Amino acid sequence: GALCQECGEQPWNYRCPGCSRLTCSLPCVQAHKRRTACSGKRPRTVPVALAQFDGNQLLSDYNLLEETSQVRESAHRLLDGFGCGFEGRHGAQLLPWLSFLGKAAERRGVRLAVQT
């Protein structure tokens, strides 16, 4: 079989979900991550071929959608708490929202510089 792509001495046992590099052991996995700065995690937004789509991929996609929904709901609650909400079809009205944010920062003694 194929050898570890890190040490080249042992048969591979692990495939990195982030970059598909083949490694034989935890020390080789750790060396690979240090050397390449690989996170070891599959990029969640990269398309997956239908032939490779399995229950784990489905669960990962579902979790991504759930997390996205939670962040969206949290943003709505935060903006509602500031007294402004999302308006229009394309998200928040940028300039009124920035004006509100700038005034809130000023009340707290924070100088906010915004580039539009």
What does this structure look like?
The chain has three helices and two strands. It has a two-stranded antiparallel ribbon. It is elongated and about 65 Å long. 45% of the residues lie in helices and 3% in strands. The chain has a domain at 1-43. It is mostly helical.
Major beta sheet, strand line-up: 1-2
Q: Based on helices, strands and strand pairing, what is the structural class?
A: mainly alpha
Shape: elongated
Number of helices: 3
| Mean of pLDDT | 83
> How many strand elements?
2
Query: End-to-end span in angstroms?
Result: 56 Å
- Could you spell the SSE succession in H and E letters? EEHHH
User: Spans with pLDDT under 50 lasting ≥5 residues?
Assistant: none
Oligomeric form: single chain
Topology, element by element:
Layout: E1 14-15, E2 22-23, H1 26-36, H2 55-81, H3 94-107
Antiparallel strand pairs: 1-2
Quick take:
It contains three helices and two strands, in the order ββααα. By secondary structure, it is mainly alpha-helical.
List keywords for this structure.
single chain; 116 residues; 2 strands; elongated; BCD1; ribosome biogenesis; zinc ion binding; ubl conjugation; Znf_HIT
